[in-house]
Amino acid sequence: MKRNYLAVFFIAGAFLSSTCVAQNKAVPEQFKYKVDLKKAGTSTEKIAGLDSLLQSLVSQKKVSSVVGFVAKGGTVVYKKAFGWKDIENKVPATPDDYYILFSQTKAITTVAFMTLVEKGLVKIDDPVSTYFPGIPDKVITVVHEDGTYETRPVAKPMTFAHLMSHSSGLNAGLVGKFRRKEIQQADSIRKVNGDTTAGRTPGPGQRTGGAGNAKYLKDEMIALAKYPLGFDPGSEYSYHISSNMLAYMIELISGKPLRQYVKETVLEPLGMTQTDWYYEPAALSLFVKAYNAVDGKLEPATSLFSEGAVSKEQTYAEGALGLNGPIDDYAKFCQMLLNRGEFNGHRILKRETIDAMTKVNRLPEVNAGGKGFRFGLGFELYNENKKPAPEVSNTAFAWGGLYGTEYIIDPENNMIALYYLNMPKHEHLYPLFLSKAYKLFRK
């Protein structure tokens, strides 16, 4: 019998709320910035230690800029930037700078979808085919030299829980390899014909999947659905493209463009006024420039993604990436999750919904994510076998972005921590920051 974990949490949550109301403490609705460090459980010496670490990353040219943000119980004990927003023009970094968030978009897309669940418009265990009949129901088994392939029926239909846990099978395995080969062949033909957009040059905005020139997300998702799956839904983990299909489902079910629905249900209620897929051209000056760390030197990296965020005539937004913004904007989203669904005077999701997203592993115990890798609905779930730093509790959950943006929500420690870079090639220095962040509150 199919188990509906969300229904289980709704029932459990209703029972707990009716018996334990007196024990529930009011959650912080805004960040508290005026801090008595001693009352917050830290000290100027510990803050200085974190300063020293982040400054050393800049001094050693391991990063061009870095921003750290730490809040415990809604009290912000750390929000500082180090390094350069623009090295060539000697513009120092500030905590208000905009960063390319890449896959941090996925969690926001997932939360937006769960608002549809709470409205009763869809269930997480519903087959996706109920809303999108074109979704694949075959699994690829063999690809022949001539480009033809063989398939078999899926063992079970794809559900929305599969999309949110990256276990849908879309574009996975042999299918991903087959599609990449097709795109490369198409590019070769375009080059021969003198097409200057060959080479998968992205169209306006930030995007992945397809040939990178679709005007709307639905165009790429309808094209993707013509291919079989790489594995049976729920049987394996294959990252990324599922969040785009989830975003298209948001559009189909809500009847609104993704950007509009996300802003109305998540960003605006939380006061995340600077987070968006794209902006007016003048906003380019708000973005941190991208750099690579190469052999002890910092070299300019592509500005394609920040420039794509301010392109004119935008029509494309996807669920897997594309959001941008300053660190404290995303911190509001993290605090909402720590508060189990509420912040800024708005309840985005019910407490039991947050629990269903962040306490239940949706993947097989052995999966492509590696030893100990667990994933809920939209978030990696940390545990004794896999965590980014020893101090992290087993209740913590998180995800990050390609250019070095990271965050963690840790209910057991009642804290959030965010760490932002804008570097496509960088050392994985986040664990150093995270350990120091936790030690702010350790004796």
Strand order of the largest sheet: 3-2-1-15-14
Radius of gyration: 22 Å
Shape: globular
**Residue share in helix:** 25-40%
Order of helices and strands: HHHEEEEHEEHHHHHEEHEHEEHEEEEH
CATH fold group of the largest domain: Beta-lactamase
Q: Pick out the low-confidence regions.
A: 7-23
Largest sheet: 5 strands, antiparallel
The total count of helices amounts to: 13
At the fourth level of CATH, the homologous superfamily of the largest domain is DD-peptidase/beta-lactamase superfamily
**Oligomer type:** single chain
User: How many E-type strands?
Assistant: 15
Terminus-to-terminus distance: 49 Å
Return the CATH class of the largest domain.
Answer: Alpha Beta
The helix/strand class is alpha+beta
Q: How many domains in all?
A: 2
Mind telling me which CATH architecture of the largest domain this is? 3-Layer(aba) Sandwich
Domain Beta-lactamase-related: 50-424
Signal peptide: 1-22
Region (Disordered): 193-212
EC number: 3.-.-.-
Q: Topology of this structure?
A:
Layout: H1 5-19, H2 37-40, H3 44-59, E1 65-72, E2 75-86, E3 91-92, E4 99-100, H4 104-118, E5 138-143, E6 149-153, H5 160-164, H6 173-192, H7 217-224, H8 241-254, H9 258-270, E7 291-294, E8 297-300, H10 304-308, E9 324-325, H11 327-338, E10 342-343, E11 346-347, H12 351-358, E12 380-381, E13 397-398, E14 406-410, E15 415-420, H13 430-439
Antiparallel strand pairs: 1-2, 1-15, 2-3, 4-9, 5-6, 7-8, 10-11, 12-13, 14-15
Quick overview of this protein structure:
Keywords: Hydrolase, Signal. Residues 193-212 are annotated as: Disordered. With 443 residues, this protein is of the alpha+beta class.
